[in-house]
Amino acid sequence: MLEAARTGHLFPSISTRRSADVDPLEHARTRIRLLLIAPSLDILGGQAVQAARLLREFRKEASLAVDFLPMNPRLPGRGLLQRVKYVRTASTVIGSC
Predict the structure, then answer these.
(1) Model confidence pTM above 0.90
(2) Whether 29 contacts 5, CB under 8 Å
(3) How high is the mean pLDDT in each 10-residue block of the chain (97 residues)?
């Protein structure tokens, strides 16, 4: 079975593909798109800090196109409402409807 896999008889579409078949310029232009969904640093906590570190390090990688989507969106013009714990939740739910 190992010999069949090595010679390409088991999975011919995978094992017979050579790296020469891939255009190096096309491969260089393709970037993996990554969306990081996590808490933002608006409400400081361990997950938010870790997400900020991940985002910073992922953006250093040239093969990745990284975007960030906060789990706790900030609504425009509601600064005072965002500071109060339960009011923040209610205003975010009502504002996003």
Answers:
(1) no
(2) no
(3) 48 48 61 92 87 95 93 70 75 70
